[in-house]
Design goal:
This protein has 263 residues and is mainly α. The protein is built from 12 helices and 4 strands. Helix 2 packs across helix 4, helix 6 packs across helix 9 and helix 6 packs parallel to helix 10. The longest helix has 25 residues.
Length: 263
Amino acid sequence: MTSTTGRQGGGGGGVNGVKVRVPKMAELVAAQLRRKIVRGELAEGEALPAESALMAEFAVSRPTLREAFRVLESESLISVRRGARGGARVQTPEGTVAARYAGVVLEYRGTTLKDVYDARTVIEAPCAGLLAEGRTDEDLERLRAAVAEAEALMDDPSAFIRAHMEFHALVVELAGNETLSVLNGMVRHIIDQANWSHVDLDAGSPENVRANRRGFRAHGALVELVAARQTEAAEELWRLHLQEAEDYLLQNRSMTTVLDLLG
């Protein structure tokens, strides 16, 4: 009688006839080191142990260990310097890696910029409500300082749009939901690029000045709603503000997809 293992063949086991890929040794080593990094057992900037020590710890060859390093380097979890004084050092996981990869996936799928803006509204508008519900006095201080900074930069389109984008990021950050913050970072990577492209096209034009002033007033109004803990009103205001921003930014018909923007 033929065994199940025999029918599956190769090195991969399986369930119900579906082959299961067995991770390579380098991937297993990378997983162990990754776990140490995310748990804080290996701190930011700390050098990994010498290659000889890691080879002994994991019972692997130097080529296998270096392949594991390449995996972690591609994830921006370590930086590797070659040469006599080289070695691998730990880097803190950052959302920018996920954002860049998400951009590539969206480019490949032909995703429209409207699709991305709509996703931003789904993420950001509830964050405004969460912020109004749970804000602290320190949160209010940071929001008011951000509004004051933007007001001082009103006559400098490039500096103003940077402050404008940072205010949006601050709203999500202060909402206190880490998952939404990471997701927002992936979307924001694309939105920020679109904002910069628009500044290049019409900075200082009457329409641009009107849009900036409208946006500034919305930011100030949100801060007051947050201060009053008016959750529903804050979320609705932010939803309308994001829709106005989307309508303005999508006027550039030369860029309608993520590929147009990032490609």
